[in-house]
Design brief:
Number of strands of chain B: 12
Number of helices of chain A: 15
Shape of chain B: globular
Helix content of chain A: over 70%
Number of helices of chain B: 10
Strand order of the largest sheet of chain B: 8-9-10-5-11-12
CATH class of one domain in chain B: Alpha Beta
Strand content of chain B: 15-25%
Largest sheet of chain B: 6 strands, mixed
Distance between the termini of chain A: 11 Å
Largest sheet of chain A: 2 strands, antiparallel
Largest interface: A-B, 32 and 41 residues
Structural class of chain A: mainly alpha
Number of strands of chain A: 4
Distance between the termini of chain B: 36 Å
Main location (chain A): membrane
Protein name (chain A): Branched-chain amino acid ABC transporter permease
CATH topology of one domain in chain A: ABC transporter involved in vitamin B12 uptake, BtuC
GO molecular function (chain A): branched-chain amino acid transmembrane transporter activity
CATH architecture of one domain in chain B: 3-Layer(aba) Sandwich
Radius of gyration of chain A: 21 Å
Keywords (chain A): Cell membrane, Membrane, Transmembrane, Transmembrane helix
GO cellular component, one term (chain A): plasma membrane
Order of helices and strands of chain A: HHHHHHEEEHHHHEHHHHH
Helix content of chain B: 25-40%
Shape of chain A: globular
Oligomer: heterodimer
CATH architecture of one domain in chain A: Orthogonal Bundle
Strand order of the largest sheet of chain A: 1-4
Chain lengths: ~350, ~270
């Protein structure tokens, strides 16, 4: 019934390699875009923006970044929080040093700085794999957080050790600082997310993506058919860190407004984003969205249900949330290692014929 | 016939060209173990060259030396009239040497089409930015290479599985996809490591036909290792026989078949 290829003939390779080859899928994608840009900005309020939409959009960017590195190129990373911190501090330094330049450019430049740092910490991946690489990136996480705490230059010698985003506008509307409206926060993050997702999709369906996946699936065979492991792995680190840096910059400047590095970008953040990628689905752009949505929405839902409806104490609800997330990760790793994205693919297969049995 | 510099004509009338690759006194050691001892032979343009020998004779090591995966301890490899220095495996691929593996080395998480497209990576040059925006050279290059890959898909008759993930395919088809990936690189020389291993008679016949067709249609030089004697004798133009890391025979299938050393290695020496 849905998702049928019947009658949808491809007459060129261009049509065949497009992002949404099935017509129904394509229309659904346009509908989601229309909803996201045309309806939500007009009805969004502070609660929905701050607790659901803005964190979802930013975490989705970070999850896409980590998915490129871990899901597509097969390089495990536990340094996501540290790389987000690089994006945040780079953005802060740029915003305070060059106040006249647009914040949008600062966010992109912050991504660029993070890409450079990512490449630096990606160098060990040429020699070590798997668990050992994970530990090396863990070192990056701790080192970067320590660096931003220890060197006052990074937080402009402020007494509290915090960084605070100055007020900045885009097209006359505030996007950072206290006067920012929910709509502005949402739209800025949405624009970046759409750009990041499109770039990620284009990269993963083309030559670069094939190189990444070849290295992931069998690095020796990849090398023998002409993939240079050095440039391929470092490209993955660069692109992944670029996206994560953008997420970090937005997280600090647009979402939090003020941040302390250990609180906002600690090891918990690395794990949270890794969980998003695992639950959502390794090696899938859609999975990054699904994982981010799931782990942002779950605490909100649980809190509303347990505290709001059932009247339980807040700390009990918080503990139960931790237990549920932990349990879910174990269940996913055993039952569906490819995550929500794989469940979605299976559902699509079923929906092609539904409600007819054959 | 080896003395001829301009090649020879096979019994079935194919013209074999000059020497494409020459191994000169190759020795390969792993610590104290000598895998290959002072072996020399050549591979001519357009021929099907087989390397045979009992288990542990050093055939796969020899193929790894040819493909640049192992650097010989002594001796030289000459390719297209030039001495080949020590190279990284991915640089060898750019010279036009492609190979398949004894235990299939495909990328399980990718579709058949993507796997074969990886064979053309060395020819795809568009930059990261162009690919990120899917604009200009990236898209043009993708479609051009896709058209070439589709020709190979047609040639090997795997059209119906092109969007299937490789992990789901049966063994015989995986072997064929691996051949397709190697062919996609349009190699000067194609190395096949036991292309028929573990196949039934029918699959073997298919594979033989594809190997002959590849040689015939694209003029690809092929070097192969194979255990099935019937296959080797039927397919190949010249055969190198190895035993315990040494070369004990080299020549046409008929010459090799009647070589007393080769008979000894395979059947054992007659004791009086």
């Amino acid at each position: 019934m849905f998702y049928r290829e019947a009658g949808d003939f491809k007459t060129s390779y261009r049509q065949d390699s497009q992002t949404f080859p099935i017509r129904f899928d394509r229309w659904r994608f346009y509908a989601v875009l229309a909803l996201a840009f045309g309806v939500i900005p007009f009805v969004i309020n502070d609660y929905w923006a701050n607790s659901v939409f803005v964190p979802f959009l930013i975490y989705a960017i970070a999850a896409i970044g980590l998915n490129i590195l871990t899901g597509y190129a097969g390089q495990v990373s536990l340094g996501t929080g540290g790389f987000m911190a690089v994006g945040a501090y780079a953005c802060y330094k740029l915003m305070t040093s060059f106040p006249e330049v647009s914040i949008l450019i600062h966010v992109l430049l912050a991504g660029g700085v993070t890409a450079a740092v990512g490449v630096l910490f990606g160098l060990p991946s040429l020699r070590i794999k798997g668990f050992y690489l994970a530990v090396a990136t863990l070192a990056a996480q701790f080192f970067l957080v320590w660096l931003f705490n220890k060197v006052p230059w990074f937080y402009n010698f402020s007494a509290s050790g915090q960084i605070t985003a100055p007020d900045r506008t885009v097209l006359g509307y505030f996007v950072t600082g206290a006067q920012t409206s929910a709509t502005a926060k949402y739209l800025v993050c949405l624009v970046f997310l759409v750009l990041v997702a499109l770039i990620a999709r284009n990269l993963t369906r083309g030559t670069v993506g094939r190189k990444w996946m070849a290295i992931r699936d069998m690095d020796i065979a990849a090398e023998i058919i002409g993939v240079n492991p050095l440039t391929t792995k470092l490209t993955a680190f660069a692109v992944s860190s670029f996206f994560i840096g953008i997420a970090g910059a937005l997280f600090f400047a647009v979402y939090l407004g003020a941040a302390e590095v250990g609180e906002a970008f600690g090891i918990q953040k690395s794990f949270l984003i890794l969980f998003m990628v695992i639950i959502g689905g390794l090696g899938s752009i859609f999975g990054s969205f699904a994982g981010a949505a799931f782990l942002v929405l779950l605490p909100v839902l649980l809190k509303n249900l347990l505290v709001g409806t059932l009247g339980w104490p807040t700390d009990l609800a918080a503990h139960i949330e931790l237990m549920i997330v932990g349990g879910l990760i174990v269940v996913f790793l055993i039952a569906e290692p490819h995550g929500l994205a794989q469940l979605w693919r299976l559902a699509k297969e079923k929906l092609r014929l539904w409600p007819f049995p054959h | 016939m080896n003395a001829m510099t301009e090649g020879y004509v096979t019994p079935d009338g194919r013209q074999i060209g000059p020497v494409l690759m020459e191994m000169k006194n190759i020795t390969l050691r792993f610590g104290g173990v000598v895998a290959i001892k002072d072996i020399s032979f050549d591979i001519r343009e357009g021929e099907i060259r087989a390397i045979i020998g009992p288990n542990g004779a050093g055939k796969s090591s020899m193929l790894n030396v040819i493909s640049g995966f192992y650097v010989p301890s002594e001796g030289e490899v000459w390719f297209r009239g030039q001495k080949r220095g020590p190279m990284k495996p991915y640089e060898v691929a750019r010279l036009g040497i492609a190979r398949t593996f004894q235990n299939i080395a495909l990328f399980d998480g990718m579709s058949v089409l993507d796997n074969i497209m990886t064979g053309r990576l060395t020819m795809m040059k568009s930059g990261l930015l162009s690919q990120a925006l899917w604009f200009g050279s990236a898209e043009r290059e993708e479609n051009e290479n896709r058209a070439k890959v589709e020709k190979i898909i047609d040639f090997l008759e795997i059209q119906n599985i092109r969007k299937t993930p490789v992990g789901r395919l049966p063994y015989g088809l995986k072997k064929r996809v691996e051949l397709a990936r190697a062919l996609a690189a349009e190699p000067k020389i194609l190395l096949l490591d036991e292309p028929m291993a573990g196949m039934n008679v029918e699959e073997k016949e298919d594979m033989c036909r594809f190997i002959l067709d590849v040689n015939d249609e694209f003029g690809t030089t092929i070097a192969l290792i194979e255990h099935d004697m019937g296959v080797v004798m039927d397919l190949s133009d010249r055969v190198v026989v190895m035993d315990y890391g040494k070369k004990i025979g080299d020549g046409t299938p008929d010459e090799v078949r009647n070589n007393p050393d080769v008979i000894n290695a395979y059947l054992g020496v007659a004791h009086e």
